[in-house]
User: What shape does this take?
Amino acid sequence: MGKALIIGAGGVASVCIHKCCQNPDVFEEICIASRTKSKCDALKEKLDGGKTKISTAQVNADNVDELIALINSFKPDVVINLALPYQDLTIMDACLATRVNYVDTANYEPLDTAKFEYKWQWAYRERFEQAGITALLGSGFDPGVTGVFSAYAMKHEFDEINYIDILDCNAGDHGYPFATNFNPEINIREVSAKGSYIEDGKWVETEPMEIKRVYNFPEIGEKDMYLLHHEELESLALNIKGIKRIRFFMTFGQSYLTHLKCLENVGMTSIEPIDFEGKKIVPLQFLKAVLPDPASLGPRTKGKTNIGCIFIGKKDGKDKTYYLYNVCDHEECYKEVGSQAVSYTTGVPAMIGAAMLLTGKWNKPGVHNIEEFDPDPFMEDLNKFGLPWKESYDPELVD
Assistant: This one.
């Protein structure tokens, strides 16, 4: 069917690559590229021998010319960006220059400010449209599957959706006093930023971790969850009909929050450079270097994740509630692809989003968020490739 260039060789990329190899009719050939070629070679070695042909390359994703040269030599049909969110724009520039479809899992954020919004990427809309190529934004789980769930609910269950609560629960236990289950820099920036939600078309800002709820998650039980800002709120508010309010909640254990507060209090989560022994260092980047690598958590993590959306809206003039969610088991994920569930729940949808473009099931030149496409073929692939969804018509609601 086609060729994919996968940029990145971390936990999410590893899952995505495993899944591409499980879908060889669509992914005939892949090239794994990263700043550290040895990581790419290790993944190739693990997966070589199947139907999907694998090659590797070294690339600095901050450098547009290097990216263009790589794209021109490999000639992919789609570029799957699993590098850092700081590199979204350079990769989009390279895709534009070479007229190749683009997929990512997280929106662009500048290095110097923890600001999660789509304006930088949405600014590419006309140029992608004119080039006749598609940029599919946010094909992870949240953002990603949460957007597909919303489009599916809109298509099949509602005439209008008024309230969406996105609930992200990771009940995994890795045994460390403090570790982050994805890139520590991105994780801590996200958690220590101010919270916000959308109500009546406006952003309402909250202090970090100010709003807490306890929720009884199916297959997991009661967990503390906190309102965070999350990028998909911005696009869903525009693309889903009838929205009055959207919120995003994520669970955190007390040990994680206590450690984070101490680190914040002593300045270790700051992204402002400081002078240290004649060099400039960013405290958060230094902290990342001393924390456990998220990729090392796989073999130690036990428990489950539950991520989903609760919808409240109207169908045929009547009030209706609907809950769509996925439960993923850390140990099962590790057995299958050698990664914990947080990487798994992002890596699988990245492959599916790219497959939608390669097969032509989704074809809309321009820059689009995932909920702008027909959700049905994506929902089918979630069941097929390891993220089966469940539904409830009488869920516990969040007050």
Notes: The radius of gyration is 20 Å. The first strand starts at residue 2 and ends at 7.
